[in-house]
Design goal:
Layout (H helix, E strand, L loop, with lengths): L10 H19 L1 H9 L13 E12 L9 E10 L4 E9 L31 E13 L2 E3 L1 H7 L22 H31 L28 H19 L30
Antiparallel strand pairs: 1-4, 2-3, 3-4, 4-5
């Protein structure tokens, strides 16, 4: 049950939804870098030998603007906000379903996007129900992998200027047996994807409605203008966007000092245990 005593979505369940959305984002954007990190044996983008690769959550915070009522549909929009030498910061917005449309689906161009690039609210933030920010760290055993290394290994960074030091990385091909197993494992998922596209095309042909004219003046890009193409992202533009995102990310980083507010030696009101007291759960 996701409802609390106020008969709306409980605030604790937002973080569970964020876990799923964040996992989808990381496995999609960083698939190439993750493959290199997992297959590297003391060489390539990182060392670490045979240590396991993983992504650890270092912190999370959520701001609630509106409620989600029972059976109300919503969407989660997740993206990379910024990064520093250690942490990758992501943000997830809970948005009213179909109130804001992306301009297009860059990874799945065959997916139909009715009236893309418009919104049905006066301001895009009016469609936002809640916003959550997270900081993550890439690990290979106890070794920390800088986010910039993973971004570069995944082909997500533009060309570096000559006066910026290069990261010495090279792609490592996956072992033959592992590559064959991965291709076999992907077969059912590719089949389901094609079936989903066929079903969507059939449904749209049956329930087709005339699309309202697209209002480009109310585009869903942050500044209200058309979103830049991939080739427009230079290193300077990327660095400016990273710095802008860090202004918001620093608010989460400021919580590092919160542990100092633990008043261990002060008086306490009392000690309470729940029904699982024998497990040592106290509040």
């Amino acid at each position: 049950m996701e409802l609390d005593y106020n008969i709306h979505k409980s605030n604790s369940t937002y973080f569970q939804d964020c876990d799923i959305a964040r996992t989808h984002l990381l496995c999609t954007l960083f698939s190439a870098g993750i493959e290199q990190a997992r297959s590297s044996k003391g060489q390539g983008i990182i060392g670490g030998g045979n240590k396991a690769f993983g992504v650890a959550l270092g912190g999370a915070a959520c701001s609630f603007r509106k409620e989600i009522n029972p059976f109300e549909k919503y969407e989660m929009w997740t993206r990379v906000l910024s990064w520093d030498r250690k942490w990758l910061y992501t943000v997830t917005h809970f948005v009213r379903k179909d109130k804001v449309k992306p301009r297009r689906f860059s990874m799945y161009p065959k997916q139909k996007n009715m009236n893309g690039g418009t919104r049905l609210v006066d301001a895009k933030e009016d469609a936002v129900i809640a916003s959550a920010i997270h900081k993550l760290v890439f690990k290979k055993g106890r070794l920390t992998i800088p986010p910039e290394v993973m971004l570069q290994a995944s082909g997500l960074l533009p060309a570096r200027p000559e006066n910026v030091a290069l990261l010495q990385t090279h792609a490592l091909p996956a072992p033959a047996k592992k590559q064959i197993a991965q291709e076999i494992f992907d077969v059912p998922f590719r089949a389901f994807e094609k079936l989903d596209l066929v079903w969507e095309a059939a449904r749209n042909s049956i329930l087709s409605e005339p699309e309202p004219p697209r209002d480009e003046s109310r585009d869903s890009s942050p500044d209200g203008t058309a979103a830049p193409n991939a080739e427009d992202w230079t290193w300077a533009r990327m660095e400016a966007e990273r710095a802008r995102g860090m202004e918001m990310a620093r608010n989460l980083g400021g919580l590092e000092g919160l542990a100092m507010e633990f008043t261990a030696e002060a008086d306490a009101l009392g000690k309470h245990s729940d029904l699982w007291w024998f497990l040592g759960l106290t509040y």
